[in-house]
């Protein structure tokens, strides 16, 4: 009877270790498969800015969310251009390293975000949104800027882009 009391916990430890090894192997295989097929398990955001605008025209940030996975994925639109400017989700610095002044609205949010705050991207598809950054950031004409998307902690989107541009007005 004493041997059974020792054997049962040992078997439980053994089987849980086997189960963990199987899960880790499955994760490694799916990660390797994703790398070789060019697919990831998350959404990716890309940003682009055309720094040349006519006087009075918007300075557009083009924000594209790509779903390179095999299934539909959702993201929170908060802190993205998919909603009106309600928060600072960009880090914009000039050539001196000074942060551009954010002058837009700052929304207070209830947590967790309601279902209406999410947008879905079909497998292999993308969604595009534009935002006029002149409406939310104080920029100086003739200055060079570096832009990084920083809203990923709220939206769940990953962006590795750093975009540079010179804010000029065309005549």
Write out the strand line-up for the largest beta sheet, numbering strands in chain order: 1-3-8
Biggest sheet record: 3 strands, antiparallel
SS field, number of helical segments: 2
Poorly predicted regions are: 9-39
Strand content: 25-35%
- What does the average pLDDT come to? 80
Q: Quick one: overall form?
A: globular
- Alpha-carbon Rg, integer: 23 Å
- Give the CA-CA distance, first to last residue: 93 Å
Helix content bin:
10-25%
N-to-C order of helices and strands: HEEEEEEEEEEHEE
**DSSP strand count:** 12
Based on helices, strands and strand pairing, what is the structural class? alpha+beta
Describe the structure.
Mean pLDDT is 80; it is low at 9-39. The protein is an alpha+beta fold and 171 residues long. The chain has two helices and twelve strands. 23% of the residues lie in helices and 32% in strands. The chain starts with a helix and ends with a strand. The protein has helices at residues 2-37, 152-155; strands at 43-49, 52-53, 60-67, 73-76, 90-94, 101-102, 118-121, 126-132, 137-138, 144-149, 162-166, 168-169. It has a three-stranded antiparallel sheet, with no helix packed on it.
């Amino acid at each position: 009877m004493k041997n059974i009391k020792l054997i049962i916990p040992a078997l439980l430890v053994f089987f849980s270790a086997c189960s963990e090894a199987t899960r880790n192997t499955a994760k490694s295989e799916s990660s390797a498969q994703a790398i070789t097929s060019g697919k990831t398990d998350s959404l990716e955001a890309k940003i682009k800015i055309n720094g040349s605008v006519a006087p009075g025209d918007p300075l557009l940030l083009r924000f594209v969310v790509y779903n390179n996975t095999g299934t539909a994925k959702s993201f929170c639109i908060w802190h993205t251009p998919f909603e009106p400017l309600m928060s600072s989700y960009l880090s914009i610095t000039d050539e001196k390293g000074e942060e551009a002044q954010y002058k837009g609205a700052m929304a207070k949010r209830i947590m967790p975000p309601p279902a209406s705050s999410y947008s879905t991207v079909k497998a292999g598809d993308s969604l595009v949104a534009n935002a006029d950054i002149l409406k939310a950031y104080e920029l100086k004409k003739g200055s060079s800027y570096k832009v990084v998307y920083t809203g990923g902690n709220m939206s769940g989107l990953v962006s590795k882009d750093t975009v540079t541009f010179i804010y000029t007005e065309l005549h």
